[in-house]
Amino acid sequence: MANASGEGPYRSYIENAPIGVFVVDTEGAYVDVNAAGCELSGYGRAELLSMSVSDLTLDGALRDAFHELRATGRVQTETQLLRSDGQVVPISLDAVALDGDRFLAYCQDISERRTYEQRLEESEARYRSMATALDTSSVGTFVLDSDFCVVWASEAIERFLDVQRDDIVGADKVDRIHADIKHVFAEPDRFAEVVTASYDDNSYVESFACHVTPGERREERWLLHWSTPIESGLYAGGRIEHYTDVTERVRYERSLEEQRDNLRVVNEVMRHDIRNDLQLILANAEFLSDHVDAAGRPHVETILASAEEAVSLTRTARETADMMLATEGEHSAVGLRSVLEGELDTVRETNADVVLTVETTIPPVAVRADDMLASVFRNLLQNAVQHNDSDVPEVRVAVMERPGIVAVRVVDNGLGIDDDRKETIFGKDEKRLDSPGTGLGLYLVRTLVERYGGRTWVEDRQDGENGAVFVVELPKAEL
Q1: Which DSSP letter does residue 184 get?
Q2: CATH superfamily of 11-109
Q3: Collapsing DSSP states into helix, strand and coil, what is residue 8?
């Protein structure tokens, strides 16, 4: 190119170049520019040819680069260019001396590169922050690339798996490492199955693996292993594997299971031994009632009443234990009429002095419950009878249907319930007034009803008479 601003053989290449090409004289004035240079600066060709380097500089950055070029004949740097709209554009500058009085400069916008580099730096900073957090946490972590090679491991992994992370990062695929660490697991074959399953399922996978620390102590520890896929970024297609020590949780769960086993034993004792002994007491007391004089008869009646109360208590305690031990499963449709009528018949047979009235027809509907629904009505009716100090105990039962709900109301003519006890009376340790009872019956009622998705409460009678109204609402079953 004999003349950079003329029509030499390379002029068309310069004019069509995708980067800005500028020609300046020794004073920094522009003597030629291509179309890309005009677009980069925001100025037209004629306008630029009346300007100098000083007009496109911010804080003298571009001017300083020109002074270096004039002094050395070559400059390669990254600097800034001030556009016509006031926007500052980061550029790469590569300039050389063209002849004695002119210089040729190639300028390229590097905004996108700078943005990418900034995002990369931020990503690396986040990665370093995450790595630091993982390194100092109690969770052992592997990061695997798409070939399942370990690219990073946390410090805790050494403590959990008896390996040195410097020996495994980048050295082996994780299946080899898992083969090497199987010896620390009490069930190595199960551990291998867990790992294989986590790779086959491209999603979150969680499982338990029993870990036994090597050495003389052989202390049993439990690890929770979980694996998640990496969906994007540098290691897309790989996985992150975590191990965390859940020994205390496992020990606590075992302790709970042991308590449940103990409760089962108590339940069996309640169900058989104590109840059988009480039945013997009742039978012998009834036999003695015909063989004592008038002075002894009140004592026999006290024995009979106490024994009957104890039998009732053992039944309630057994049902409460059954409820506590049961795992909450599927509820089914239970016929309300048959269950409620069965409990009403029991009250009539065992409490001849009680006036029991059913004020409404019991509808033939099914409610959402299970085989313990009878305990709800049994305990409500027993509560109304046993805690009634009236000369003639009265109990009235009414059943009402509403959309999606059946409400059962049990009304008695006892002393009633104070307002400050209407809620707490359903607690495990509550007693009604001076009753010797434990309060388990009403606790069982509320717990079962809420388990069925219903609710229960107590309110005052609206007719001005003494007494209480216990209400149970149960959801209808979908048939």
Answers
A1: G
A2: PAS domain (3.30.450.20)
A3: coil
Domain boundaries, the chain: 11-109, 133-245, 250-327, 330-479
> pLDDT tens for residues 122-160?
776 776 666 565 555 567 787 888 877 888 888 777 776
Longest CA pairwise span in the chain (Å) = 145
Distance CA 392, CA 412 (A): 11
CA separation for the pair 200, 207 (Å, rounded): 14
Task: Calculate Rg over the CA atoms of the chain.
Answer: 44
pLDDT in tens, 57-106: 877 888 888 888 888 889 999 999 999 999 999 999 999 998 778 999 99
Residue 472 — φ and ψ, nearest 5°?
A: -120, 125
d(CA 408, CA 469): 10
Place of tokens 């291509």: 34
Judged by DSSP in three states, 105 sits in: strand
Residue 78 tokens read as 């990254």
What CATH homologous superfamily does 330-479 map to?
Histidine kinase-like ATPase, C-terminal domain (3.30.565.10)
